[in-house]
Design brief:
Elements lengths: L6 E4 L6 E3 L5 H4 L2 E2 L8 E5 L2 E6 L6 E6 L2 E3 L4 H4 L11 H13 L12 E4 L2 E6 H13 L25 H21 L2 H7 E5 L2 E3 L5 E2 L4 H10 L13 E6 L6 E2 L5 E4 L3 E5 L2 E11 L2 H7 L4 E6 L17 E7 L6 E3 L5
Parallel strand pairs: 9-10, 12-13, 17-19
Antiparallel strand pairs: 1-2, 1-3, 3-4, 4-7, 5-6, 8-9, 10-11, 13-18, 14-15, 15-17, 16-17, 18-20
Helix pairs in contact: 3-5, 4-5
Length: about 350
């Protein structure tokens, strides 16, 4: 299937590019991969709709799938596919990230990398280590030591994988690269072909890790099922969520956090409709500015939710929040990450 690409180069004039939303075959003709080291032929997929079924209620709703470019279905037969150096050729890029993740072993042979070779798949992504990266970033470590001391020193947080600030930095670099790769690929089927998700000894489905903008109801049901009502990155698994941010100013909460709201999703629970309101909480203004640069973002966090209750004022519809703490830039990137 390959990567979904949001823009392409015009074959008749390679100095010009066109977005998938504005492209028409009759006007623009054939198009090429936007990576100039590649320039393989691409085909266009028009905007469409697909039906999403609510597993609990059985009801189906239509969601829009934006147009995009991709490799033609004949690319395998013709051999006209992305070059090895092309940034849209997922497998070689992922192999480089596996090698980059392995570099952490230079700090100690017993240190486990975040991303490893995955046997039949290109890679295995270890979510239990990702959870500790998020937890370690949040706690800032109990010690103010810069990480050059003994790894076994009890001044450190004592995590099994992220044991010091010295270890945390390369882990963060790897986590950011993997998140950007997930954003670039975007398609769960293609991601599952390349990457196996592992949490400890358990295999994890991509449907339980990556939630697109039209899958917030599934995320809410997942959080309720796993009773994720309190922030506990040591117990609960991280997930990756696509959000469309509201173009409104961030609000300051009573606890001093900054709150950025995403566009709500209307859902149904039997005869009752309610809103799911995703929101990001941050403490750093520079993080807020970095997040607000994007309309759509992919956030990796340990989210929480709340039980659905009737509002005190009957004029308002019932709603639930999905809350995500972001404390470091490795937790988010633009979606899709194309350029």
């Amino acid at each position: 299937m390959g990567v979904k690409i949001d823009r392409a180069i015009l074959k008749k004039n390679t100095s010009e590019t066109i977005t998938a939303q504005k492209y028409t075959k009759s006007e623009h003709g054939d198009v090429l991969c936007p990576d100039r080291r590649c320039l393989c032929p691409l085909s266009h997929v028009s905007t469409s709709t697909r039906n999403v079924k609510n597993k609990r209620t059985g009801k189906t709703k239509q969601v829009q799938v934006d147009s995009f470019f991709r490799l033609p279905s004949s690319s395998k037969k013709t051999g006209k596919t992305h070059s090895l150096r092309c940034r849209y050729n997922g497998d070689p890029v992922l192999e480089k990230q596996v090698a980059m993740s392995q570099e952490i072993k230079k700090l100690g042979e017993d240190i486990e990398p975040l991303l490893v070779g995955g046997g039949k798949k290109v890679a295995e992504y270890r979510l239990h280590i990702l959870m500790e990266i998020i937890r370690a970033s949040y706690t800032k470590f109990k010690s103010e030591n810069d990480g050059d001391g003994d790894d076994g020193d009890d001044k450190f947080s004592g995590y099994r994988y992220v044991r010091s600030q010295k270890h945390l930095k390369p882990f963060i670099k790897s986590a950011k690269a993997i998140l950007s790769f997930i954003s670039r690929i975007g398609d769960k089927n293609e991601l599952s072909r390349m990457i196996a998700l592992r949490y400890g000894e358990s295999s994890i489905s991509w449907n339980d890790f990556l939630f697109k903008n039209d899958e917030h109801e599934a995320l809410y049901r997942y959080l309720v099922e796993h009773k994720q009502f309190a922030y506990a990155p040591g117990r609960n698994r991280p997930v990756a969520v696509v959000l469309k941010l509201k173009q409104t100013p961030a609000k300051e909460t009573q606890f001093g956090d900054l709150q950025i709201e995403a566009v709500s999703t209307e859902c149904s629970d039997g005869e009752r409709t309610f809103l799911i309101r995703p929101m990001i909480f941050i403490e750093d203004h520079s993080l807020m500015n970095a997040i607000r640069k994007h309309k759509h973002i992919l956030v990796c966090a340990v989210p929480t939710t709340e039980m659905l209750n009737e509002p005190a004022n009957p004029k308002y519809r019932p709603s639930v929040r999905i809350k995500m703490k972001v404390i470091d830039r490795h937790q988010f990137c633009a979606f899709p990450m194309q350029r």
